[in-house]
Design goal:
930 residues; 22-stranded antiparallel barrel; 5-stranded mixed sheet; 9% helix; disordered N terminus
């Protein structure tokens, strides 16, 4: 552990010693006055008293995140629940959030949890307004998630939103405004240092650099690319009702301008929740959501040669200007007209390679996405008999996405080469669920029984209609398929998936001491071949509430002691295409117009394909001391996923790729959550929450192939990540640096296979991105009307492959480099860790760029003041200031250790490759209740 993180963890330990000391020394007579409230926890298709809970479940209340500038519900989970690892892999507005519950349990299939928003099941939580949320319940083990069958293997997050209350009308308004800047910088060579380096790489480069046309130019690309971001958020909601009808309505707007143009995220949301008591035996529930999001993208996670803005801002030499008209000498034709690259309004050419443009040119490329989403459900609650309730529900989720991309044929070198190029990509996702449940309950005080039975009909229809083309008429500024004259392509895809399932649960509690629960789900899917369509997913768990036994009745210290244990299975169907057991071809139309349409192979028959199945065993302990002023939960688990779905390539046989169930893997770990009420007085309170998770995973077996290589680093043309039995998921694979030859300046790699020469057999596993543990630590203080909330998050032991350093330290061409190359080898006999310039030995994936990714982060701090009844008709006004990503302690040399350039590649984590930097944000907020 590095010194910075060690000291920081020491501070946390000291704070916690103080917290526990204060809690334990609180006078007993103060504790006895507190009212004991029975807490209810939401689980799948119902709820249960927390004292009777048998599974591994965590709850996150809205109070933990409602003062933070977040755009995604996943951000609200970060640091607030044991076993939930959240990585905001990019600081780009609207970027995807990587949420993993108890680690990674698949190689090719999605490991995103299932979200259940007011009963609506979805894997896509983007666009949901965090301001509408009351709390989130995380189902972490298979015992609790098995009831969701083939969708629950990666955990379930049940999201509950606000609802109206009878005879308590309330109008609420909240808003915040803020600014953002980069958290960290990467220093690059100044112009003189750059020239010295170029003289070593290729002296002819200096001739170009010293050309009179560049005289006096010294562009600061960081200043040209980076800017101050701006955040704004407005929400208004009104809840009202009586004993018969209750409603909650809300309207929200959020806009985030990123620190790098044109990045922008914009969301408009509208919501209505309705509860109606039609008769004494019939109730109606409705939830309606409309979400409209707009996203302007800044290309990141790409090298300079592929249009990556971030690396281009660091790599582009400072002797180049932004625009061609800024050059001291501008080339003309024989008629005196400026040539392309020198005209007004055109970006300056790169004299070394015209296709490698400056970052401002890359920023001019249009890539905009507009999403409209309608989520709704309508349900009844029918009391058929005493204690027997039937709940039919219909939910519908419609997502319509349009992506426009265009590079005009005038401004950029690439655009002129293509004469303009672009595309329009439209997709529609329709998801419908029809569910019926019957619930029967008996509560006698001694014997409590709850029986649940139900079925679900699920239908999903997806379609994509994509157009692309190039060579547009001069002056075209937006994509128009009918105007393109070359490479016109049109693709139309439609998919239809049906699933049918039956599920049930029995929960029995005896004398509030002994609880046992059994669940099952029987799933069928049209995606699979006959004879392989159905799967059965059971679970069983039990709990013993020891603290309710007579022998602990008079205990003044121990207020709660419960032992839990469970076993269950759940499935993952995300890696299964809708028609997996068919050979499929797709019809493509490739212009020029009039060219015959072409049928191309798309998918080969995988008739023996089945879903991945995760088997989970969990044991847990819950402690409560001093009337639950101190609460501790501990869980240990082991998860094994079998029948991993992986694409197998048979290109040499002319067959292509076939999906197969080819392997197994396992996760195991420990989780601890500690909540304390450190001090509770008349004017001052202090509460602390701490959670920490230890997780390990590894691949157990792979059939058909010994290993799987993914995550290609385009700068060197090699894969970085290898999956193989016995190794952790996403392990880095490459060469190991032995030393820098002091006579030649070349890298000498370890001869791991012992054959006394350098070859691919010398490669080995060089890093593991999975942390040993991650944690969250929050403190909430209040003094009279003032309050202070602090959240600290951290991770230890995970490694990061800083692939950005290939572009910043390889020293093999004309790109600018980071100041790290100032330590490069230059003379025989020099001892250094940085090789010479233009060394072929630098161009290999090796442990040279593997870095410690451990970090400790002051994630957020909020200081606020509540004005109680300041005006007539106003019950409360709350003013607050929040800082997010305030401080980071880490040895990582990149922008930020929370990265994942390959976040769209399942199973890969911990790679930095020109990733959009994280931002430090300060906001001022206002909340008013009327």
């Amino acid at each position: 552990m590095n010194v910075k993180i060690s000291r920081s963890l020491g501070i946390i330990a000291a704070l916690y010693f103080t917290a526990n000391f204060n809690a334990q020394t609180t006078p007993r007579d103060t504790i006895s006055k507190e009212q004991k409230i029975e807490e209810v926890v939401v689980i799948g298709y119902g709820s249960v008293k927390k004292s009777n809970l048998t599974s591994a479940v965590s709850t996150v209340k809205s109070e933990t995140f409602d003062d933070r500038p977040i755009y995604n519900v996943g951000q609200a989970l970060q640091g607030n629940a044991a076993g939930v690892n959240v990585i905001q892999s990019s600081g780009k507005p609207g970027a995807a959030i990587d949420v993993k519950i108890r680690g990674n349990n698949s190689i090719s299939s999605s490991v995103n949890p299932l979200y259940v928003v007011d009963g609506i099941q979805t894997f896509d939580i983007s666009g949901i307004n965090p301001d509408d949320i009351t709390d989130m319940t995380i189902l972490k083990d298979a015992t609790s998630a098995a009831i969701y069958g083939i969708n629950g293997s990666s955990g379930v997050v049940i999201v509950t939103t606000k609802r109206g209350k009878a005879n308590k009308p309330q109008l609420a308004f909240n808003a915040y405004w803020g600014m953002s800047k980069t958290v960290n910088n990467i220093d690059v060579l100044n112009l003189d240092q750059y020239k010295t380096l170029m003289a070593e790489i290729n002296p002819s480069f200096l001739t170009t650099i010293n050309n009179p046309r560049y005289e006096g130019i010294n562009t600061n690309w960081r200043d040209e690319v980076f800017r101050t971001g701006f955040d704004q958020n407005y929400n208004v909601n009104y809840s009202f009702g009586n004993e018969k009808v209750r409603a909650y309505t809300a309207l929200g707007y959020q806009g985030i301008d990123g620190i790098i143009d044109p990045a922008r995220f914009e969301r408009i949301s509208a919501k209505m929740n309705l509860d109606a008591k039609i008769t004494n035996w019939l109730k109606l529930t409705g939830n309606f959501n409309y979400i409209n999001t707009g996203l302007k993208n800044t290309n990141d996670n790409l090298g300079t040669s592929r249009g990556g803005v971030i690396l281009s801002a660091l790599n582009t030499p400072s002797f180049l200007p932004i625009y061609g008209n800024q050059l001291k000498v501008r080339d003309t034709d024989t008629a005196g007209n400026y040539l392309d690259g020198y005209k007004d309004g055109q970006f300056a050419l790169n004299p070394f390679q015209s296709s490698w443009e400056n970052p401002v040119a890359y920023q001019s490329r249009k890539n905009e996405t507009q999403t409209q989403r309608f989520m709704s459900n309508l349900g009844l609650e029918v009391n058929l008999l005493k204690n027997l309730v039937w709940k039919p529900t219909v939910s519908f989720d419609l997502i319509d996405v349009t992506n426009d991309q265009f590079t005009d044929g005038f401004q950029t070198s690439y655009g002129r080469q293509q004469k303009g190029i672009g595309g329009k990509y439209s997709s529609t996702y329709q998801d419908m669920n029809i569910e019926n449940t019957l619930t029967y309950t008996i509560k006698s005080g001694v014997h409590d029984l709850a029986l649940l039975g139900g079925n679900q009909i699920h239908e999903k229809r997806n379609s994509w209609h994509n157009y692309s083309g190039r060579a547009f008429p001069e002056g075209t500024i937006a994509f128009d398929y009918n105007s393109a004259t070359l490479d016109l392509r049109e693709t139309l895809v439609k998919e239809h998936l049906r699933e049918l399932s039956f599920f049930g649960r029995a929960l029995y509690t005896y004398d509030n001491k002994y609880t046992i629960m059994g669940v099952f789900r029987y799933n069928g899917s049209s995606a699979l071949a006959p004879g392989n369509k159905w799967g059965f997913f059971p679970g069983v768990s039990g709990a013993w509430t020891v603290s309710n036994e007579d022998f602990l009745a008079d205990n003044k210290i121990l207020s709660e002691l419960k032992l839990r244990g469970g076993w269950g299975q759940s499935g993952n169907a995300s890696g299964i295409p809708p028609y997996s057991h068919y050979n499929l071809e797709r019809l493509y139309r490739i212009a020029p117009v009039g060219t015959p349409e072409v049928w191309n192979g798309h998918q080969w028959d995988s008739s023996d394909l089945g879903w991945e199945t995760t088997t989970d065993a969990n044991i847990g302990l819950d402690f409560g001391f001093l009337n639950n002023r101190i609460k501790l939960s501990a869980d240990a688990y082991k998860r094994k996923t079998k029948d991993l779905i992986v694409p197998i390539s048979f290109e040499s046989a002319g067959i292509g790729t076939i999906l197969k169930n080819i392997g197994d893997m396992e996760n195991q770990g420990l989780e601890f959550a500690l909540n304390t009420q450190n001090f509770k007085g008349e004017n001052f309170t202090w509460n602390t929450n701490f959670n920490i998770s230890f997780t390990k995973n590894k691949v157990l077996s792979l059939n058909y192939r010994p290993n799987i290589d993914v995550a290609n680093i385009e700068t060197v043309g090699a894969n970085l990540v290898r999956f193989t039995p016995g190794q952790a998921i996403s392990s880095f694979y490459g060469y190991q640096v032995d030393h820098i030859d002091s006579q030649t300046g070349d890298i000498v790699y370890k001869d791991n296979n012992g054959n006394e020469y350098f070859d691919t057999g010398d490669r080995t596993f060089i890093g593991n991105p999975n942390p040993d543990f991650s944690f969250g630590f929050s403190n909430n203080f209040s003094y009279k009307n003032w309050y202070l909330d602090i959240l600290i998050t951290g991770s230890y032991g995970g490694e990061i492959y800083n692939a950005s350093r290939f572009d910043l330290e390889m020293m093999n061409d004309f790109k600018n480099q980071s100041t790290a190359v100032l330590d490069r080898w230059t003379t025989p006999g020099q001892i250094t860790n940085t090789p010479r310039a233009n060394s072929q030995s630098s161009q290999y994936v090796s442990d040279r760029f593997v870095e410690d990714g451990s970090f400790l982060k002051l994630k957020s701090a909020t200081l606020g003041y509540n004005f109680l009844s300041p005006f007539k008709g106003v019950s409360k006004i709350n003013l607050y200031v929040t800082g997010q990503n305030l401080l980071t302690w880490t040895d990582y040399t990149g922008f930020d250790p929370e990265v994942n350039a390959f976040n769209t590649t399942n199973g890969v984590s911990g790679v930095d490759y020109g990733t959009y930097p994280q931002v430090r944000t300060f906001i001022f907020g206002l909340k008013a209740n009327f």
